[in-house]
Design brief:
single chain, alpha/beta, Rossmann fold, 3-stranded mixed sheet, globular, disordered C terminus
Length: 288
């Protein structure tokens, strides 16, 4: 397939970096819009074109998307809707022909009461109404998030009331699938669910992760109500967010059927045990 000029937003994040690397490996010309050029250089060297700016600023988006055939969007709740609206507003008269967007596996009308879901639903709606070709990826939990439960010399295992089985996937597998979508038009206009190869509850995944990768750490096991109370008392935002997310998944479970995505782009094959054996420098999680 022909090489494309692709802009990636959220390139230095947990799911952004493997997408960038896989697009470069497929000989696409990748441009990224980042707030920190230094951080981007450390991640990608000279393999990509770097534009310094903020996704919330429309003129920065305009500069970054000039001459691009496609845009991949993998942003946080605070910025994704605004950035998507900017892109669609600027798409008329541009050469933009495709947008890939990272939503989530439980995003649906029934779950719109949860703020993150509402934002992603609204972002998807803007994209679907735009007239630009699109693919929406709806992933479940990525293995790299397990790093976020390590705090200093302690591993934290939060045990929900009714933890569902989650099909964790490796970020590298996700990057391969997104990059493959740019060489295949069959997925245009689709929502594709991304699940890994084995189902396991979050507490069990954390126990296995700590035992395999951080056996020297002390382990704190907390029930969900204890984690929420500690987050409130200590004002730890990450713990509060993790607690709210775990409570949400306890309620709604893991949704979506990955069959179509697997048929189109190959099943994510990396198991947790295989991921544990990857070099720590490669496996290390980064904020999304």
């Amino acid at each position: 397939m022909a090489s494309r000029q692709i802009l990636v937003l959220g390139a230095t994040g947990m799911l952004g970096q493997p997408v960038v690397h896989c697009l470069v490996d497929k000989n696409h010309r990748v441009r990224i819009l980042v707030r920190s050029v230094e951080k981007a250089r450390q991640a990608f060297g000279d393999a990509v074109e770097i534009v310094e700016g903020n996704v919330l600023k429309k003129d920065n988006i305009l500069t970054a998307m000039a001459g691009c055939d496609a845009i991949h969007i993998n942003l946080t709740q605070e910025s994704e809707l605004i950035a998507m609206q900017h892109i669609i507003d600027l798409a008329s008269g541009s050469r933009l022909e495709r947008i890939t967007y990272v939503s989530a596996t439980t995003v649906c009308e029934e779950n719109r009461w949860f703020e993150l879901v509402d934002v992603k639903m609204r972002t998807e709606e803007v994209l679907r109404r735009s007239g630009v070709g699109y693919i929406i990826f709806c992933p479940t939990w990525v293995m790299e998030t397990l790093h976020n439960f390590i705090h200093g010399h302690r591993g934290v295992v939060i045990i929900g009331k009714n933890p569902p089985e989650l099909h964790f996937f490796a970020a590298a597998d996700f990057g391969r699938m997104v990059a493959a979508s740019y060489d295949d038009d069959r997925a245009l206009g689709k929502r594709l669910f991304i699940h890994g190869p084995e189902g396991i509850t979050l507490p069990d995944a954390l126990e296995r992760f700590i035992n395999a990768c951080h056996p020297q750490l002390k382990v704190t096991r907390m029930k969900l109500w204890q984690a929420r109370l500690m987050a409130k008392l200590t004002r730890r935002e990450r713990l509060d967010y993790a607690s709210r997310l775990i409570a949400y998944f306890d309620k709604v479970g893991e949704l979506g059927d990955p069959t179509e995505a697997n048929m189109l782009f190959g099943t994510p094959s990396t198991t947790l045990d295989e991921w544990f054996r990857i070099s720590k420098d490669i496996r290390q999680g980064v904020p999304h």
